[in-house]
Design goal:
This protein is α/β, with parallel strands linked by helices and 193 residues long. It contains nine helices and four strands; from the N terminus they run H-H-E-H-H-E-H-H-E-H-H-E-H.
Length: 193
């Protein structure tokens, strides 16, 4: 049996090292963009690279497993770029029920403090260091911040406009698999943008 190794795909690279699709994802002037490209085209990678230039990204994915995989990939990429473990942990966050449980079990937050914790992260993950930031979230987690029935004592409110002003990019990955509630949220963000 012969083994074939493909070292690179036949996709042109620009001077910045990105493909034309990746470059367009980050720089196209339209406020709302829809990109359809196959798995492995580098859509997620483009936004990882955007972090290196100081951009803030909210990356919304349909499942907890995909969110965990993207966070792992992002932290590995940042390690390759020379970011320390502390920098990677301070500039990349996961918003999911699994992460809530982990934060509570480790004593970082109390049982009822997750919404306030995430609202603080909405405005900045780590203001002591320069560099971009990425929050990888599932739609239900973002909705839980936007659709609260009442404010807890000492918390401020967060609206879709807060999300739009705090992030350079809001990405809905695997959009075709997002449930109707997530689709409605994407529609609201698109309309306000």
């Amino acid at each position: 049996m012969n083994t074939v190794t493909i070292r690179r795909h036949a996709v042109r690279s620009l001077d910045n090292g990105l493909s034309p699709l990746q470059h367009d994802l980050l720089t196209h002037p339209a406020k709302v963009r829809i990109a359809d490209a196959p798995t492995g085209a580098g859509k997620s990678y483009a936004f990882q690279r955007a972090m290196l230039t100081g951009q803030r990204i909210l990356f919304i994915v349909p499942t907890r497993r995909l969110a965990q995989n993207l966070l792992y990939s992002l932290r590995s990429f940042l390690a390759e770029q020379g970011w320390s473990q502390e920098q990677r942990d301070g500039k990349a966050a996961l918003w999911s029920s699994d992460e809530t449980r982990r934060l509570q079990d480790s004593g970082v937050i109390g049982e009822k403090q997750i919404t306030g914790y995430r609202i603080r992260q909405l405005y900045e993950l780590d203001d002591t260091r320069e560099g971009g930031e990425m929050i990888i979230a599932i739609p239900e987690t973002v909705n839980s911040i936007l659709l609260r029935y009442r404010l807890d004592m000492g918390q401020s409110d967060a609206s879709p406009l807060d999300f739009l002003t705090q992030f350079d990019h809001i990405v809905f990955d695997e959009f075709h698999t997002i449930d109707p509630r997530g689709y409605g949220m994407a529609g609201v963000f698109a309309r306000l943008a």
